[in-house]
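Appendix B. Chain record.
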Amino acid sequence: MCAACNMSKANLLQGMAHPSRLSILEALRNGPRVVSDLVGVSGLKQSGVSNHLAHLHELGLVKRERHGQFVYYELSDPRVEMLLTVAGDLAAVTAPHSEDSASHKLIPRRPR
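Structure tokens predicted for this chain:
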């Protein structure tokens, strides 16, 4: 695979690798939402939600559409939802399970 392709994938996955961004993406699985809706479901401040949405938009994971004074955000492509589903399924079988998510540590890669 080409180095530029790997870099694009790494940027995409790195951009998704934030719990707040994932909670926003998960909320958008239910359809278009305005920032105030996302503030309610994410527990973040409006500025935080807006910043994360801007980053997700730059990555091409969400799109926005203005309707009057409101801007609605939604997943940009059905494959984003598929990626969230696959990531959740994979995490369920590979990630260490703990009541305290803060205790999760990266597991060193095994030498080949």
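Further analysis of this model is presented in Appendix C.
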